[in-house]
Q: What sequence folds into this?
């Protein structure tokens, strides 16, 4: 049994991701459906209402305007109580970080308190927006995520939602179809600098995590664009003396043994969505990762966190 399979909530979340990718093309995922069924009893949310575990309801990109339907709580967004005396670590990021956060929490159990904001942190605009979207008053999302408590280590990433292309209403389409890029690189750099500057004002050790690869054939994203955005980001964090955890480089190196498939092999609209090959880190033609990929990323993130954890007891 693989390590991640010992934790039903993690299995449920990753099964839902896989099922969603298949569902986008109208194809069922029997393996994912089975995993959802077998972990349903362990993944219920105590809210007084039974939550749907329909894998088709799990949207991989929670910032979509048409993705507001009720869905199971993502394990990466679960808010957990601190264990007194342990260092506190905050992971800020999108669905990629949501995928590996539960693994990181398990691997560092008894060594650190691992937290993630209760939402997909989206693009570089989201942390700067007011948390109260209705009144547009009060603290920003970033201020709310940081809260008033002490953090020992903060890992942050933005990029995949900045480099994406949409029709302006949340539908992912490529630039050749008239897609509009969410955040051009120059604006991305300015916003990332504002975010990083605010993070530096905390007492935490702040670390930037590079944006993971965009493989060929992704809807609404251009393969290799992460290189452009990572280059901009590295320039920003270097000026602020913020260390870098090169998760993109780690994934790229791991993928040399089994590279992503070319865009020419991507299924056409209406075709059955192909599944990942054994040992494949990323889902085919998708920025998201397989269960094994999430687990491997967590190993890299754990090593990074351990490097910056304080030797003395947390404040």
A:
């Amino acid at each position: 049994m693989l390590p991640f399979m010992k934790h039903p909530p993690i299995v449920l979340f990753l099964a839902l991701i896989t099922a969603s990718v298949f569902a986008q093309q109208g194809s069922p995922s029997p393996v994912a459906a089975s995993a959802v069924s077998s972990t349903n009893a362990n993944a219920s949310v105590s809210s007084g209402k039974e939550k749907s575990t329909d894998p088709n309801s799990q949207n991989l990109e929670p910032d979509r305007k048409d993705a507001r339907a009720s869905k199971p709580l993502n394990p990466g967004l679960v808010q957990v109580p601190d264990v007194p005396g342990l260092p506190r670590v905050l992971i800020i990021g999108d669905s990629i970080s949501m995928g590996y956060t539960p693994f990181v929490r398990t691997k560092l159990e008894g060594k650190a308190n691992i937290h993630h904001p209760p939402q997909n942190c989206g693009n570089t605009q989201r942390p700067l927006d007011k948390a109260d979207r209705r009144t547009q008053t009060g603290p920003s999302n970033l201020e709310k995520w940081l809260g008033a408590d002490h953090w020992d280590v903060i890992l942050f990433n933005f990029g995949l939602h900045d480099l994406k292309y949409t029709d302006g209403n949340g539908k992912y389409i490529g630039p050749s179809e008239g897609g509009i890029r969410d955040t051009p690189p120059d604006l991305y750099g300015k916003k990332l600098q504002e975010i990083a500057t605010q993070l530096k004002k905390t007492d935490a050790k702040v670390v930037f995590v590079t944006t993971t690869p965009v493989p060929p054939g992704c809807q609404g994203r251009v393969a290799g664009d992460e290189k452009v955005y990572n280059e901009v980001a590295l320039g920003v964090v270097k000026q602020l003396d913020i260390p870098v955890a090169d998760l993109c480089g780690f994934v790229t190196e791991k993928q040399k043994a089994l590279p992503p498939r070319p865009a020419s092999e991507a299924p056409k609209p209406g075709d059955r969505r192909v599944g990942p090959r054994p040992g494949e880190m990323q889902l085919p033609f998708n920025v998201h990762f397989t269960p094994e990929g999430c687990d491997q990323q967590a190993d890299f993130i754990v090593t990074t966190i351990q490097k910056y954890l304080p030797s003395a007891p947390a404040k």
Remarks:
- The chain has one domain: 73-308.
